[in-house]
Write a structure and sequence with these properties.
alpha/beta, D-Maltodextrin-Binding Protein, domain 2, 13 helices, about 45% helix, disordered N terminus
């Protein structure tokens, strides 16, 4: 009888231990950080990504975020399309064109707005009005860049059609310095770099109503981990608040310099121009899609198909 009682007690202990181990395993599985791989072409326009990483905001939201370098925005897009990455930041036209052409991607958040790209010219430039642009050689990254679209549209409407030279950033400034172009459509931090060199901004407001940069996710990850991506955007929102509180503060500037290698003086000069937000600018993105249709870059405007249904009422469709 005593042996039977001991046997029952031993079995109960083993069962309890088994249940305990199982419970711990289940708990660990439920609380394990969700892993997100971000493919990123480094720029101060993606500063909220770097701040969220450096301040531990992703970890705070139980996320394990890895940032993988990409040489350019199209490479970041391709990494997500191929499944090598889950998320990427890009110009809105990059995301719109990819989604419209069937890529398994969705926009989940805005990054910043409006577009801060402007036209930079030499101090003694004769370019003062839109008509002055007629026949001039202007550097710009691509005819489908939202800033270039805005400038070309405004120039066309005012009789100032110019010749686009496909150059961006540093090469555009070098071409301007060498006299090979008459002006350059630049974004931060290159605008600030050029201003600090003595160049000036003209026709500033062409792209001032155009939304700039979006956060985009591959649909496979969206389907499997929508809650993780929502926490991801919450972390970005907290990073935005931190940056906007003091955009030229020591910690923000140090993080920007660490990730992008941009000159500290240029970061301090232009960082306050970057207005970070997570609210998707639906009308502005739709207008850009219409322009891409007119350029025959896409066949039709995708409308709300651009956006992740999981984020409706959160970052869009409010």
């Amino acid at each position: 009888m005593k042996k039977a009682v001991k046997l029952v007690a031993a079995l109960a202990a083993v069962t309890a231990l088994s249940i305990g181990i199982s419970g711990v395993a289940t708990a660990n599985k439920e609380t394990a950080p969700a892993r997100i791989v971000v493919s990123d072409a480094k720029t101060t326009h993606h500063l909220n990504l770097y701040v969220a990483q450096e301040l531990g905001l992703f970890k705070k939201h139980n996320l394990d975020v890895t940032i993988v370098d990409a040489k350019e925005l199209s490479a970041a897009r391709d990494a997500a399309v191929s499944g090598q990455a889950d998320v990427f930041w890009s110009c809105p036209t990059v995301a719109i064109a990819a989604i419209a052409n069937g890529a398994p991607l969705k926009i989940i958040s805005q990054v910043k707005t409006p577009c801060t790209s402007v036209l930079i010219v030499r101090k003694d430039s004769p370019i003062k009005t839109w008509k002055d642009l007629k026949g001039k050689h202007i550097a710009g990254i691509s005819p489908t860049c939202e800033a270039v679209i805005a400038y070309e549209k405004k120039a066309r409407e005012n009789g100032g059609e110019y010749i686009l030279e496909k150059l961006a950033g540093g090469p555009a400034i070098a071409a301007l310095e060498a006299g090979k172009v008459d002006g350059a459509i630049l974004e931060e931090p290159h605008v600030s770099i050029a201003e600090l060199k003595g160049y000036k901004v003209v026709l500033r407001d062409a792209a001032s109503q155009v939304p700039c940069r979006t956060i985009n996710a591959r649909t496979g990850y969206l389907k499997e981990n929508p809650e993780a991506l929502k926490r991801f955007v919450e972390a970005i929102k907290e990073a935005n608040a931190f940056i906007l509180k003091d955009p030229s503060g020591k910690q923000v500037v140090e993080i920007a310099k660490k990730y992008t290698g941009a000159p500290e003086e240029a970061i301090r000069h232009g960082n306050s121009r970057l207005k970070f937000t997570t609210v998707i600018q639906e009308k502005g993105l739709s207008d850009l899609a219409d322009e891409l249709v007119s350029l025959k870059n896409i066949k039709e405007n995708p409308g709300t198909k651009l956006y992740a249904a999981e984020f409706k009422g959160n970052t869009w469709g409010k």
